[in-house]
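The step that takes the researchers longest sounds almost clerical: writing a folded protein down as plain text. Below is the pair of lines this work produces for a single protein:

——
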Amino acid sequence: MITEAINAPELTGNWIDHLPEAALLVDAGRDLILSANSAMGRMIGSDRQSLVGTPCTHLFTDQRPQLIAFTEETLFRSHGWSRDFFLQHRDGHTVELEISSSRVGEAETQNVLLLLRDRRQLRTLRERHDANHYHRGGLLEWRRVEELFKDMERENQLILHAVGEGIYGVDAEGRGTFANPAAERMLGWRIDELMGRVLHRVVHHSHADGSLYPLKDCPIYAAFRDASVKRVGEDWFWRKDGSGFPVEYTSTPILDNGHPVGAVVVFRDISARQEAQKELQKALEEVETLKHRLEMENAYLQEELSAEYHFHEIFGQSEAIKAIVRRIGMVAPTDANVLITGESGTGKELIARAIHQSSSRRDRPLIRVNCAAIPKDLFESEFFGHIKGAFTGAVSDRVGRFELADGGTLFLDEVGEIPLELQGKLLRVLQDQQFERVGENNTRAVDVRVIAATNRDLKSEVQEKTFREDLYFRLNVFPIESVPLRRRLEDIPILAQEFLNRACQKFNRPQLALKERDVETLKAYHWPGNVRELENVIERQVITSDGRLDLDLPGPESAARTTPAEVAPARHYSGDLMTEQELRELEKQNLTRALTMSSGRVFGDDGAAAMLGIKPTTLTSRLKKLKIEPREFQVRPE
């Protein structure tokens, strides 16, 4: 053995020069040529001393990765063999090589001896050698193993050509013995090009990211090393053109007289499956996003349904109502922004819903935002949404009202309550129909129609510089005034009877009818709370009635004449009676307690309105009347 000769103590001098073939002694760890013999110098047309101390990879400039893999294999298995390398002679011609390698020296060293042979010179010698063997009728042992694989290939020729999976065989040295046409197509190599080559270095040398795949870690080699079947669900093979593709494969050992002599590898290209999995994952993510959005829409719509709107249709026969209906019919088919003005309780939201239901957007939701109930520091999050971690308390992504209203209508109730410094951001979204969630750089596009409502005089506020003029004109494309009830007294009988019928059904009371005297009493009142107040009055009458209505409302004249100085002092009775002032104070205490318990939240299932059993809009109106600010009850982080 060469290694035995090298390690023999009696061999002195430059032992490598005694070898009959071109030889290099290389420190593989440092990529350094330690010694070279004269035959090596002749092979490349150079002085052998000029090679000593130079990197070995300089001799194989274009094959550096293959050389690293080859020396790594040699260190792992103590020997190696390859026909994949070539050198450039100094005169320019290429020397095709056959290389044998051995690990030399102590175990802790990384010295490798390379014996290099000119393949063209060897071909003539081998042909002569094989001819002599055939003439003598003898075959070497390695030919017997080769014939074993050839017999397998012949016996299974039909199967190998028919199946769609790639199939190839390797011997105990990892060299190709056969391959089917499917393997040829997938790998890009001709079958004759794979025969006799170490297939790990051809198709399995690197991971998908290009990092080296050590031979000792290869499951294909482990199959005949351990004499066990190895199944790999996801790996990477390389084609001849340098491109790669994902595979799954099974490596099955081939036994001869109980000893492993190689393995058969069956592999399948799983690129299409992985692509389908990626598409499925992408689709699932989109479905999850859509599901989250639909859940948000559903939660919002459930909240809206539970708010018990004041009325479902526009009732009235006055000219004011007919004019409103005409204007709704004109603007509804368009996408124009609408500004609805009018006192509280006149049904501005009803007009907005009528516009939406009469538009082409009726199949998408009408999303309502009570601008007066949004804390200043949560305005952007409420309108545009936020991503997880955008601010303290943002524990998950949140869809904003603009995104929920995409394709539909956004109703901005009490738009005059939006702080001046935030109006510019709203204007930009109305102009561009684009926004970013809080904490996110990704710009999102929406298609939203905006209907705004206010009980404030925005023209005056524009002049006073408390409301942006450009935002006012952007909203006020098509104005509609919601007329107060005192200016359409002829609608009172219709509204009152409708509310009376509903209240009797709601409270399970016998049906009641309005009398002429009741109608006159209702018309004589000035209705500062408009339609909402009328509904509340009728409901109280139904609750307290004993089979008939007993309306007792102050007329407009007495209301105008009465001043605080003329109000009679309240009498204090013992027992269950309370004065009006005491009732107001009790109501204020009750509302304050509800806000404290809900941490300043008005809306939602855990909001103060739900605790009190009233509509959020009603609670907002009462808080404003009593000058109670919900945000003062919010719990702030330490």
About this structure: Residues 1-13, 134-142, 305-312, 555-576 have pLDDT under 50 and may be disordered. The first helix runs from residue 2 to 7. The chain has 25 helices and 20 strands. The two ends are 80 Å apart (CA to CA).
